[in-house]
Amino acid sequence: MSLRIPGPTPCPEKVLHAMSKQMINHRGKEFGEMMVRITAKLKDLFQTKGDVFILTSSGTGSMEASIVNTLSPGDKVLSLSNGVFGDRYATIAEQFGAVVTRVKFEWGKAIEPAAADKALKADPGIKAVLVTHNETSTGVTNDLGAVASIVRKHDKLLLVDAISSLGCIDLPVDKWGCDVVVTGSQKGWMVPPGLAFVSVSERAWQAHKTAKMPRFYWDFTRAKEFLQKNQTPWTPAVSIFYALDIALPLMLEEGLPNIFARHARLGRKAREGVKSLGLTLYAEEKVASDTVTAVNAPPGVDGKKITEIMRDEHGIVLSGGQSTLAGKIFRIGHLGFVTDSEIDDVIRELRHALPKAGYKIPHK
Amino acid sequence: MSLRIPGPTPCPEKVLHAMSKQMINHRGKEFGEMMVRITAKLKDLFQTKGDVFILTSSGTGSMEASIVNTLSPGDKVLSLSNGVFGDRYATIAEQFGAVVTRVKFEWGKAIEPAAADKALKADPGIKAVLVTHNETSTGVTNDLGAVASIVRKHDKLLLVDAISSLGCIDLPVDKWGCDVVVTGSQKGWMVPPGLAFVSVSERAWQAHKTAKMPRFYWDFTRAKEFLQKNQTPWTPAVSIFYALDIALPLMLEEGLPNIFARHARLGRKAREGVKSLGLTLYAEEKVASDTVTAVNAPPGVDGKKITEIMRDEHGIVLSGGQSTLAGKIFRIGHLGFVTDSEIDDVIRELRHALPKAGYKIPHK
Is the CB of B5 less than 8 angstroms away from the CB of A25? Predict the structure, then answer.
């Protein structure tokens, strides 16, 4: 079975193999040395000199962490959203008492940086901006660089969900001035789910000092205190650290420019491939993501049927649509441990599967 | 290296091996079937007909979850604490705005159920009681059955940290009327850290309905909604599910009565063993834990020195003391995947290690 969903993503054999290692003391020397190695490499891959913490949670936990560590109930927050995950970020902030202005963009299109500028001008009381770098639900990569430069101009806090982009698509955390950036281990990192990584800028630390949202498990102060001892405050998912300790050197060996280029190539290949089948992209092509491609189900064909046939008869697991897009789109994940030929396989098998779902592939 | 700390605990070979399996879709059929198998078995081992959820987090995350799902800011809470973890539970509740009455008991002694009765009589406004079943920091098992019957008599909510007891020491969740019981995968369950399990009673669901503490990642309503689809709301730590899918049948095969008997035997063996070396127990013997034994460092000997020698020269990893007990005690973990002979090994090696740390073992 080939897993071509936007997470969990497949892991290299040697990464999986690393997880069969016996447990060790998470307060001991061996774990501490691993923590040092991993943290240094994560910082390189985040392109930051700031702090990077490892949380035992899924990506959503790290989104919550970014909010509760930097904001207080009643704080005004601007949410820029063009999909399920953008909406989720806003909901988390509201749940913890932030007053959220939700600026929504059409699904399948990108966030317009100018709209962020306008919203920040309209309400100078806004303290922070929530943005999704890569919107997994629609297969759109937002122009985070442009959004960041506007947020910097207004001197607001920038919290970024980079769960399905970091380590795949360029995100120079320090250069762009992103304050908290979060991601999950099961995406571009080639390791199983269970860990999340967060970067924290100096500006975020300043905000943290006065942030009153309640927190304990996610608390950055505790994370920093323990990182100074090369530990985590709470017992970490040790086996996923083992996996990471193998995967991160693989990433650094390939090198960020090559990783970005590979994802760009895979994204193009996926888009060209589905178009060659006469299918249309859900996302506007110029902002289409290089980690996940959302494809419109052909008229009259249920997207679920396509993913079922692909899984049951062709051994390829794709994702369906989320929320209101259920049945209307299907999604091909191409992030992390993926090669060109594996995307070729997806297109080839789709060519066989689509007719069974009732779609006639047009002759060129 | 033998890991004899109270978590992470060693895992059987086949459990570790299971984790080298490739990732699968956490929204797919295979994961769903695994979720059904695992949840049913967890309910058996929790001895409950209520809900049991699996969270991707360490045990501390599940302690936070138990609080934020059942309480509102301003709620009065009674904390019964006799150690580091009891104090932690109270701190989490305070952090989220509960008004906590802390009734503290001498470390090394058990919580006195009568004191709970007195405190609940003194303030009928108390809504919930926080209690640690097995206090890992001091090696004491509290009489949870007696505490529970008092809490039931007063008709309060009972939240239980059973992180280092469940699956090792008898805890009949339904019979005792415990409302939320939490535990972590790296303790008695013979799997690596990264997952936490929580049981939720009908009374806890009633409390949940009006509970106003902010929550998103930990939200039981979302957990329940997704469990109905045999999923978790957020991407779970799939590889630790694989491990659990192997470990739980091993536990059920051994059977709860045998598991409890084994831990009781191991506990006795550890206590008798350290006493045979002329050492004294930190915990009062009649309430000493069957999962972890806290041993006083001999007068004039640094406990850290003992754990260092044991690790570096004898290949056995023990735990030191936490908080104010650092250097004053050392702890032997004997929970989960442990046999009698492995505890014999610890005692035998201690006999060689202690003189090197400056302690002269008395002749009988």
Answer: yes
